[in-house]
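Q: Hi! New to this. If I give you a protein sequence and the SMILES for pyridoxal-5'-phosphate, can you show me the bound structure?
A: Yes, paste them in.
Q: Okay, here:
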Amino acid sequence: MKRPLVRDDLRSMDGYHSPQVEVKVRLNTNEAPLAPPEEFQAAFLAEATKVDWHRYPDRVAQSLREELADLHEVEAGQIFVANGSNEVLQTLCLTFGGHGRTAVTFEPTYAMYGQIARTTQCRVVEAGRDKDFRISESELEAIIDSERPDLLFLCSPNNPTGTPESLEIVELAVSKSPGVVVVDEAYGQFADFTAIETLKQTEAPESLVVTRTFSKTWSMAGVRLGYCVAPPWMLPEFEKVILPYHLDSLKQIAGRIALRFRDEMEQRVAQISAERQRIAEALSALGLEVFPSQANFLMFRTTECGVDGNELWHRLLAQSILVRNCSNWPGLADCLRVTVGTANENDSFIEALEGAIK
Ligand SMILES: Cc1ncc(COP(=O)(O)O)c(C=O)c1O
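A: Thanks. Here is the predicted structure of the protein with pyridoxal-5'-phosphate bound:
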């Protein structure tokens, strides 16, 4: 039977690949190791009984936006909520990308910037980072001058390297770039820098957008909820590209209730950061090169231990430990990324690693 042809540009593209394998210890997708508190679940279930199932949800998610605005001390008109920060990124690409437009990424970074931009037929230009995976001012200026990007993606802390961005780089990008500057802060609560502060200034830039997610620190990857803080003029533009009623009623409730448990979230962040430090020390003691991270994951290189990164990934998998294999990404030969898990999961990972590199 004849199959209809998909778009020419899609035929050469790959989808997003992160294996979902059944293993004992899953440390490959930077999820939170613990669920939200039981009180969260009880409060959510109680609220869920009040949902008007036969009615569409609040189209602009007003209550959730107001509560997020309080959290960040901005206006509700600056908050846009969506199905995970990936949908926020897609909304940005639909609004500012598209045919004849250019997006810039700094590789290695989160693969979805390029992937989503391309699905809107946007041209993607990949700039580089220095040996410490930082963006240099000279590289940033040069790429802005040569490409005049409509979209420029910064990731702070950067996935998969864990490197945070600096105020200087964000300000330089905003001042030089003709287009929108996106700072993806999916792991923002783990870092000592946030670009949201820049959006709170009296003369806040009209081109800066900071994205956040409930998937990581809020322990809610299963819910698919994310948002951005943006200049107010952008919100009506986003409304033109999103589907009506895209954010369902239950998700809006889940987000509002999660925000009541901020102290618990911050405790989890502190615990994860302490565990990250413990893992980093154990890995260094094993002779692995560990890159400094301000996120809930660590990237490390196996070269100095004399074990190939792909081989080590398979050896860990054979022991039912799944981490992210970045070895085949440009610039990341022999690199693996491990998400910080529970103390027990981290012990299993370290133990398996000890056996695997001997
Ligand atoms: C840097 C970065 N941005 C965005 C996302 C997507 O998050 P969400 O689950 O909110 O779509 C991820 C997920 O791993 C990420 O690492």
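A: The pocket of pyridoxal-5'-phosphate is lined by residues 30, 84-86, 110, 155, 159, 184, 186, 213, 215, 221, 226 (CB under 6 Å). Let me know if you'd like me to explain how to read the tokens.
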